[in-house]
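A note from the maintainers: we've had questions about how concatenated examples are separated. There is no special marker in the raw files; a new sequence line simply starts the next protein. For clarity in this README we add a label.
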Amino acid sequence: MTNWNDLNKLFLEKLFPASRAASIRKEICGIRQIDRESLHEYWEWFKKLRASFPHLQISEQLLIQYFYEGLLPMDRNIMDDASGEALVDKTPTDAINLLEPSSVIKAHISVTAPWRPCSGSMGLYIEFLRYTTPKLTVKLKSLTKRLSRYWKRWCSRIGRTGAAD
């Protein structure tokens, strides 16, 4: 050994054998959120797995991509909505900051009254729905008005009164 890098490499090879590294790399590459596992539980498991072998030689961006691809569709949509784009399009630092507990809610919901966040992923879904429901209601009313106008125009063209038969 002639320098610190050689000593560091030897230490890591003894502490973290190549077979263990390969096993953990494979597990991280194929990580999947299981049904009924909250987003927070999945993130905590991912962080624990990542910390179990600190020198994986996988870029942070690729780690975030593996995490994202393993998300259940509902949680993936929540993360995309909270980030304003696909989570994998964020910088690793921004993605990690977004994934920390309740940051999804904080990113979109400003509450002036005192409140207590609900626990677990169901609480996250409830808060997400509280945020999105008013917006969806406005969009639905707008769409209903448009359809009503089109229906009336169409009925006038074919000589009907506009009532559904």
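[label: protein 2]
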Amino acid sequence: MSIQLKTAIFQYHLLIAAVFFCRMTSGQETAVSSQAIFRIQSIELNGNLNAAQGLDIDDDGDNDLIWLKDLPIEKRSAAADSWAGKPEIHLSYPNHLDLSYFVDETGQRRPIQSADDHRIRRQHALLQLQEVMGAVPDDSSPVPLDVQINSVEAAQGYWRIHLSYAADQWQGQVDRVPAYLLLPFNLSQPVPAMLCLHQTNSQLGKKEPVGLGGSSNLQMAHQLAQRGFVCLAPDYPSFGEYEYDFQQRSAQYASGTMKGIWNHIRAVDFLESLTCVQRGSIGAIGHSLGGHNSLFVAAFDQRIKCVVTSCGFNSFQDYYQGNLAGWSSSRYMPRVKQLYHNSPDKMPFDFTHVLAAIAPRALFVSAPTRDSNFDVVGVKKCEQAVRPLYQILQADQHLTFLYPEAEHDFPAEQRELAYQWIEARLKLLR
């Protein structure tokens, strides 16, 4: 496909980091920056004068990054809104640790014996998640991503691009998600991409995974970009730069969790629009808050082919002795308290349902034995529940659970194993 660059070129000032990096405590880095210029160029494709945009970082006339503006989006298979069951039949899976069956259109239990059987159970799992999280937004006509570049910095082996993208709109106002895109230097062909989600750190937010502070154990986007992955790290609503009022938007989103899921689905839309990203090779990774958010978005978006979660979940029965108050704030899922009284027994889903919605795609779990947030006993229960399902789907080789002797952290050994596992699943060619 020929690409003709048009003459409409807009110049923007940016900061490019100088080569001086100062090592600080516990893997922290700071950068000295100097001013430079980048250009955003309109690109014509097959007669469409504004089909794509290009970013010329080094001012040499070539586009270092191209994103398509009207890319047909692969079906996300997110909404589970069509069940053939009778209206009076209530979907009931009272034992959240039993993933061996599905409820058919007559209300009878049937054993899961095939991928078709599992698709029904997955559909039901997504419906049950939405009972607590609220409905996933209609994806038939999303707002344009309208990517806006704020600055670019040269980091250690990659460009760190500070940008924002449009997720949705509310009362006529477009909601923009701040993010960093990490683009490896000198890409010669499309490569896999990773959505990298931060932990609960309201000040740093997305800065920690991209290496701008925090723990070196959690700088996953920075480390994956150095291995050749394109990485996108957005802020979760109300973290980092992202100002967001959950109460004000409660009429649009029943939970902060669902708002996060939608923002992350839109992040995958953006990754798919990049010509440097290999189609069908997108994964997600996160720790703690990012650990369960990576699972949630993968459950609803099947374009995510592999997921790594660190310290991200356990069974609700084993979360602080069954007290789910920590899940019930407006930032997460208020209905946990409002409708289900913080009780695991009253909840329509557990994390086993989330894992079942991801199956048979590749899943890597790191669950430290001394994690005080997510008791490892509850993680092992989830593994015992989901592994037989992966075996039925002939995907047991895609399921990995590790239990390092550590606290609430993502230790170096397990992180390295996760990176190698991602490379194998997404076929990164070094």
